[in-house]
Write a structure and sequence with these properties.
3-stranded antiparallel β-sheet; 499 residues; mainly alpha
């Protein structure tokens, strides 16, 4: 691929996400290993640090229900010592290269640390995407087919078609009938001998085990599946410690914090941003047109919360005359503590990205490793929140906000894990591919690879997909999408370094 096309792709992406451009201009020449080491550098903020135990205690209770008291307590101990999480991922089985590799990269500094309390890579994932989302596919599993076309991507659905556009946050869990139907479909696929049986075994091991089947909530099932799937991929290691993976959807965490800590406390800043007229007026002034929040002029995003329709699709809400209301008026909720609490408990609404950012990053001050969109959106949100607090005269809050880190790219858009097809072509591996092909997935392999490649080199193959995420089809320049990630992988020399 000509360098000029790569540069045009970068410039188009940086135009939509300028903070990402700043990060890559500053750090693009660094080896990935060196960049990842700085994840562990968490700025203190004494004023916000005093609040953190409240959030961490809530996370501990949610994790205990899913993974047991010991894991939950160890996660709590770790976060109190180092309040670092990833908010890069969608909530789904850890299988797509986007999220598989963001976590491989985010785990590198844990592997190197000598601190015995750093045992877990904690991910506050977003469950607001549909179960059919192409880069998560919580609806089922993703793997490559082999047979005549070894690069063909197979999407094997578990959840029925009628649920495919529902948001993960509100969708029911997998059941035995779902999995049996999927296993029956394997018989119809053109696989190499024995491949279908191996896939069926993986379904039984990770999705049909007793713990998952006894958990009716999809959100909770994902936490359990990923904890053990990650261990299967990377444990055991020979010497250094590979962290276990904890997935907890951020919307449930924020909902619990609202119900237990903020909706009952008029002195809370979170309460005020939702219900105080002075704050509400400034919400429109400062958050309008920030990605992850809302746009009054362009009718995108939502005001603090999404509603859910009867098919579990997201419904955009606006604030009008003291009510959260949809554009056509079919969904209406009183914008007061009692009305919001009841709607949250009934799962009629759930927190939008803005309130999640405000609470986890900017009110409690957790360091959040983010994706290629988040580093831009969260940085803009922090600036808007700081300016808003300044206008309200809350100087102590403004000063406490200053050390909060928002430009932390947690490995999103970079791929270390590749496989070779039968015809010798390289392709980004799904997690199930890695197991099916019996590849060496010891974590030392990826740590060593991270010392050979720069940030810019690693991001190059994913530029076309990032471009399609940021530009709707009617705005795309076809000349920038003439090459595949696999083509870029070969032509930039990454193949020689990573294979």
């Amino acid at each position: 691929m000509p360098d000029s096309v790569l540069e045009k792709l970068k410039n188009a992406i940086w135009k939509r996400r300028p903070i990402l451009g700043e990060i890559m201009q500053k750090h693009g020449g660094e080896f990935l290993f060196d960049y990842a080491k700085d994840f562990m550098d968490v700025n203190p903020s004494p004023f916000l640090d005093a609040r953190k135990p409240e959030l961490i205690e809530c996370a501990e209770k949610l994790i205990e229900k899913r993974l047991g008291a010991q894991v939950a307590k160890e996660v709590s101990t770790q976060l109190l010592k180092k309040p670092l999480v990833s908010t890069t991922d969608h909530h789904g089985p850890i299988q797509h290269p986007f999220f598989l590799n963001s976590n491989i990269i985010s785990a590198i500094p844990y592997y190197e640390t000598e601190d015995p309390d750093m045992k877990y890579l904690v991910v506050f994932s977003f469950a607001s995407v549909s179960v059919n989302n192409s880069s998560t596919y919580t609806r089922g599993i993703l793997f490559h087919g082999h047979g005549d076309d070894s690069n063909s991507l197979i999407r094997l659905p578990f959840l029925p078609d009628k649920l495919k556009m529902g948001v993960v946050y509100a969708t029911r869990g997998y059941n035995r009938e779902d999995l049996s139907k999927a296993e029956d479909e394997l018989v119809k696929k053109d696989f190499d001998p024995g491949r279908g049986e191996k896939i069926r075994d993986l379904i039984e091991e990770f999705f049909a085990n007793e713990q998952v089947m006894n958990t009716p909530e999809l959100n909770e099932q994902i936490t359990e599946i990923n904890f053990y799937l990650w261990r299967r991929l990377f444990h055991p290691v020979k010497e250094k410690k590979m962290p276990d993976l904890i997935y907890l959807e951020i919307e449930t965490l924020v909902t619990e914090m609202l119900l237990n800590n903020h909706l009952k406390n008029p002195d809370s800043l979170i309460y005020k941003v939702l219900f105080d007229p002075k704050f509400i007026d400034l919400n429109y002034k400062y958050f309008n047109n920030i990605p992850g929040a809302f746009s009054l002029e362009k009718d995108w995003g939502t005001y603090m919360f999404w509603a859910l329709d009867e098919k579990l699709h997201r419904v955009r809400l606006t604030l009008k005359d003291g009510m959260l209301t949809s554009g056509h008026g079919s969904w209406n909720y009183e914008m007061n503590p009692e009305g919001i609490a009841q709607a949250l408990r009934d799962k009629k609404i759930f927190p939008g990205m803005l309130i999640c950012y405000l609470m986890v990053s900017l009110y409690y001050g957790m360091k959040c490793l983010g994706g290629f969109c988040q580093v831009n959106d969260l940085t803009q949100t922090k600036k808007a929140w700081s300016d808003m607090l300044s206008e309200l005269g809350l100087t102590e809050e403004v000063n406490a906000l200053e050390p909060v880190q928002t430009k932390e790219l947690g490995g999103d858009g970079m791929v270390l894990s590749y496989l070779k097809s039968k015809d010798g072509e390289a392709f980004p591996a799904m997690s199930f591919d890695m197991i099916l092909e019996n590849e060496d997935t010891s974590f030392e392999t990826y740590v060593n690879l991270s010392k050979k490649v720069t940030m810019s080199e690693m991001m190059a193959p994913m530029l076309p997909e990032m471009y399609t995420v940021l530009y709707p089809i009617q705005e795309r320049d076809p000349s920038l999408l003439v090459e595949t990630p696999e083509d870029i992988f070969k032509q930039t020399g990454l193949a020689q370094k990573l294979l």
